[in-house]
Write a structure and sequence with these properties.
The chain is mostly helical.
Amino acid sequence: MRDTKPSPLLTGLLYFVITSIVSVLTPYLTGSSELLEAIRTGQIIGNVDTFTELFSVYNQHINTGGMILSFALDLCITVIGAGFTWYCLNVARGGNPVVQSIFDGFGRFLKVIWLSIVTGFFVFVWSLLFVIPGIIAAYRYSQAINVMYDHPEYGALECIRESKKMMRGYKGSFFILQLSFIGWYLLSAVIITVIQIVSPNMSIIGSVLNIWLTPYMGIASALFYVQLQRGNQPYINPRDL
């Protein structure tokens, strides 16, 4: 991260701003903020006796058009997330990608969305057996989005199969890598909690740590993918070649 120019912190900042705006806008677009306020103030509880009445109250507060727009924004966030993952992969390989690289996913919009849907479906099906098989499946398919970047000609199932092949015997290692970030997660949670207690309206400030943490974790995970591709060969920083 120190060697990359422009700094990944700028990319983390842009990603944080985009996701934060969508997160703040969603309750207002869908009307769920009004619905939650009605529940909080007791306008619904005690005044609704049947499912039909509950559904009617729900329709009064929920904005259908806003829900469609919110859904579209969620799709865009999924694609931007893929672009951010590819940005981290480029950094891990010694490149100096530009900040706006996080929008590269829009060039493969439908393929990224379809991969997300298929992967989510498989993880869900495995989760029906029990929680642990679902978690294992999530790790098994975790490299599919990176495979798509390296092989744009692959379909979703091909990316998933390749990820499954790459992660055979390495799911535990990836779990340990992610577990190593737990201290940062806890620190972020403590900061957010303290700020919410002191000033609830400023709770978003507690997430600012993610400007550094998100690219840090993303690039570390990308380096894991690079190592998977190299097999048992020792890692060599491309800048040292």
